[in-house]
Amino acid sequence: MRIRESFTPWRRRVVDPLVADLRAALSVDRVRIDGAERALMARDASVFAGGVAGPTCFPVSTAEVQAIMGIAAAHGRAIVPRGAGTGLAGGAIPLGAPIVVSTGKMNRILEVDTANRVAWVEPGVINLDLTTHLTPVGFHFAPDPSSQSVCTLGGNVANNSGGPHCLAYGVTDAHVLAVEVVSADGEVLMLGGLDAEPAGLDLRGAFVGGEGTLGIATRIAVRLTKNAPAVRTLLLSFATVRDAAETVSAIIAAGIVPAALEVMDQRITVAVENFVGAGYPTDAAAVLLAEVEGLAAGVDIDAARIDEIGRANGATGVRLAGTEHERALLWKGRKTAFGAIAQLAPDYYLHDTVVPRSALADVLEQVYEIAERHDLVVMNVFHAGDGNLHPLLLFDAREEGTLERVHAAGAEIVRASLAAGGVLSGEHGIGVEKQRFMGELFTDDDLDHQARLRHAFDPACRANPGKVLPSGHSCADIQALHEVPTGVWG
Amino acid sequence: MDLHLDPDELNACVQCGLCLPHCPTYRVSGDETLSPRGRIQLMREVQLRGAPVTVEVRASFETCVQCRGCEPACPSGVPYGHLIEKTRETLAREAPGSTRWSRLLLAPLGRPGLLRLGSSALAVAARLRLAPKRFGVPTSLPVRRRPHTTSGDDVYLFTGCVMDAWQRDVHIAGQRVIEAAGFGVTPTGDAAPCCGALHSHAGLTDTTRRFAENMIAALRVDDRPILVDSAGCGAAMKDYGRLLGTREADAFSARVFDIQEWLALHVDRLPVVEPLDLTVAVQDPCHLRHVQRVHEATRIVLAPMVRDLVELDDEGLCCGAGGAYSLLQPELAGEIRGRKLGSIARAAPDVVASANPGCSMHLGAAGVATMHPMELIARALDVSPARTPAAPPPR
């Protein structure tokens, strides 16, 4: 489709030099400046409202990303990378009128090498599309965030995304072999490599999880995982959330590493069941979805042991998914859980913290107590095997003062997790959401080292400024962030 | 500008983005402006924050195929179809601009005599290679049509406008199948010339309301079921209750069935046949799968009739036909079809079964052998128990 620019009488049209340069480097229709269109870019899937987005660019090649970075540098402007905009920590929202670099049109699967179990992809490839593409050859991409049908691999790399099946397989970092990166000063770097142990410092490891503050990934070499020959999925129901949490610890302690261990509490199970109709028990206080993969004989033994451990820890019911269809439905329920609760309230705030597995039951009790004290409805769904909590606070932002209560409760939940020996984020990232808590987890020394690493990649602080590191340690105070551009953006 | 959207409907979206991969225009463009979440955000900018309806904003609204593939994907149940339809209605009324083309294009639909005359002329022109290429007029358009016949009064068969002029053979096949199940069929013919679906997609909702009222009046003699073999028409007619907001319209909508949906309820009344020796891929028209949500019926009625029934791997993503969309947005429609062609190639069928005239013509124009499920069933009934040829005849 050809998009023409809004008609403006030539005398009144302001020719912005930044826009002119970007359009010369890309094309007119791939650099958008319409006010309403840019307003779309002010939000991702989080509750955080961004500032005003600058021009939105849709590059199609590494060379174009490089050109954008060069132009941004020449004009002293920041850039913010954007995949599908499904982040929950505000990592992709614009601060300081940055140039938005969307990877939406860089969505090709470049090469699949099953012999070496590696695929080269562009950053805009949707996570699930890669797995679907690999299905005929019997492989998949292991990290499977709940948003996997939408989120992009570039976004997964930026946030070091997890997912239910990362318990056994590890998060995104374990599945990225190499990344081609365009740094903020326009240099193209190849971090990592296909060798088993690439020489030198692991800069690839530094880049994964960088939340766009270290540059933009333009090509990614991902590890392919062979599909397991046999899978068993069990659904255990419990009379208390504590029983479910303790079962999880007992399973891991018994030496079983399931592919996934997911818990949902009663409120969210009811919401999911209404949406999907997967046969979840709506009368249980909590359900545990456990999945084991491997050779048929092995998974049967593991499934039997999980059944046994569950019952020993108070499971009131254990069901083995009998068919692939039944299994798919159970997972569909789990993966659409966040969306399903949207039927219940117009807004929700999804938190993400990690606690030691042994502290799960105690922290969960605190979460319920905190929500009650702030007069909020909370639902819990979590990657129990990893101790990764996802409390969901339901609210209606149109009610005066609600958002403040939600933020206050959220802060208490984060602090309760930290107090139990946990960390700030399991997979959503820090973005703008958890910046203010960074000082409670890390010492000044830690933060200074992180800031120095970031400066090594991006000395002028132009890549996604104002995110991750708290101000004082970050680029939040750089001029670019405060400079509100004049001209075509009103 | 006030788009006159319901504030609760507009507020229902929580921006999770789960709709994005189910939107054909986002899929081919990678551009959030061309996604349901993006379009809803633009509606909010225009209605709530007074953003001007610029060429870009308008393009975002007008490039929506209205396939409504985003609706089943939306866990919050955002009624996106209503939102975009209302937006288009407001734009068509208050800022007509480009809708004058659709108005002109759709003008003959309520005039069956004129439509048939024009379509026969178009068929002759296509055979003489005089028709403009961008319209993708198939050379197989009929110049003459077999007349409709009434075989009884158990059910109505809605024949509609363009489909009756261009694909009357599908109606005749559908009627043959329903009769084989033991029911007498009354084709509606010129008594109910057009359902108005294309008009409401273009924002010309007043015309749709008028057509709906006419049709309800024409078919109110008794309460027999109304079978529809065009997914787009069926979806529109099932929506008359909401559109007109009257008890009579509700009662009318309750009588409307997709022809596969209805046949699936009576499939045991069809004779057992030798399956056609064909691999058939099911292409679900969007308004059958995402709006009426009765696409499983197609599989139930087709499975006993063909050797292999296979699925496409794109989870019901739109083919880009979208009623008049392929004429109004040929570039995007072509790109969207490109994805569908890839999916069809991977399934490698002998023939694609599609229960909507727009889809079958749009795919047919790209060289895909398509047949309506009713045509396949009619053929299986006709040739049984003899063996059938391996390849379908060209359409």
For the structure shown, list the relevant keywords:
heterodimer, A: 490 residues, alpha+beta, Uridine Diphospho-n-acetylenolpyruvylglucosamine Reductase, domain 3, Alpha-Beta Plaits, five-stranded antiparallel β-sheet, 17 helices, 20 strands, 33% helix, 19% strand, disordered N terminus, disordered C terminus, B: 395 residues, alpha/beta, Fumarate Reductase Iron-sulfur Protein, Chain B, domain 2, Rossmann fold, four-stranded parallel β-sheet, 8 strands
Summed up, the helix count of chain B is 22
Low-confidence runs of at least 5 consecutive residues of chain B = 386-395
Label the overall shape of chain A: globular
Taking the alpha carbons of the first and last residues of chain B, their distance comes to 47 Å
Helical segment tally of chain A?
17
Query: Sheet bearing the most strands of chain B, described?
Result: 4 strands, parallel
User: Which CATH architecture of the domain at 109-226 in chain A would you pick?
Assistant: 2-Layer Sandwich
Share of helical residues of chain B: 40-55%
Largest interface: A-B, 47 and 39 residues
Query: What assembly state would you assign to the polypeptide chains in this entry?
Result: heterodimer
